[in-house]
Amino acid sequence: MARTRFAPDRGLTTRMVATMILLALLYVVIVAAISVASGAWILGILIGLGVLWAQWYFSDKMALSAMRAREVSPSEDPALHAMIDRLCALADMPKPKVAVADTDLPNAFAAGRSPDRAVVCVTTGIRRRLNERELEAVLSHELSHVAHRDVLVMTIASVVGVMAGFITRYTLFFSAGRSRGNNNGAPVVLIVLLIAAVVYFVSFLLTRLLSRYRELAADRAGAILTGQPSALASALTKISGEMAKIPARDLRAAEPYNAFFFVPALTGKMDIAALFASHPRLERRLEQLDKISVELGRE
After folding, report:
1. In whole numbers, what is the pLDDT of the chain averaged over residues?
2. Per the annotation, where are the binding residues for Zn(2+)?
């Protein structure tokens, strides 16, 4: 974790290290699968390293592009910059880039490969719905993701899923040509596809488990920094309620990025099980914030 005034979380650090070790093993497996599918180990290694580097280096730009957000300067949005300036000074951390996404979806997210190369983005929808205290609480939550470096871990973790999808499409596309006249080709293709499916599923579960814990850690760290857990609880309640009013089409478009959002974009359906949820239940988050209020009151 970066040295800031955000409350450290050993549980989050332990989970991030364990997740990265397991994902590294899965990454080796998927690179080997690419090598088998392509028939060339060098190609598999180059593709694997290339995708990993691109995801790491361009993570902030990719996130902004996906949400059609744009970076804003202090002269373009002085109020938003002033709020982030205050929080960064309070947390004693580098100021990230600031961006705004012109969408009615009420949300916010952080992205980037390091605290010095991070971006915090809010939507116009969340700014219309929250007051200044509530928005400041949300921004403190997002800045804690940057300080804890869990944004970087989630970004790298997503590479394994991307690679699993790539190897599946690559194998299906080229398997017909390679297996023509070769009866041994089909079993190899099936094995590679099975490996890709298992790797994708395991990486999906690992990132979801980490995602749920990191949201609780960010809620706690952000609320303690500002000393206003009630403002964050109010923001959570408002946004969760407003999400039902967003058109289903917009929610479906945003769902792939749920793990990075302050509040998940859901189309009204419940997750099959809590195991697959990207965020803790609202009640769990509010319960934690209530406990923090009590703790701060005693202090």
Report:
1. 84
2. 141, 145, 215
Helix (H) or strand (E) segment spanning residue 48: helix 41-57
pTM, 2 dp: 0.86
Residue type at position 47: I
- DSSP for 65-120, please give it: HHTTEEE--TTT-HHHHHHHHHHHHHHT-PPPEEEEE--SS--EEEEESSGGGEEE
Phi, psi of 272 (to 5 degrees): -55, -40
Sign of CA dihedral 21, 3, 111, 234: positive
CA pseudo-torsion sign 158, 161, 162, 163: positive
Rounded to whole angstroms, how far apart are CA atoms 94 and 109?
Answer: 17
156 Cβ contact partners less than 8 Å away, ≥ 6 residues apart: 20, 23, 52, 55, 56
119 forms beta bridges with 97, 111
Per the residue annotation, which of 142, 242, 283, 295 is the catalytic one? Answer: 142
The annotation places the binding site at: 141, 145, 215
Query: pLDDT tens digits, residue range 19-48?
Result: 889 888 888 887 777 677 666 667 667 777
Would you call 136 a catalytic residue per the annotation? Answer: no
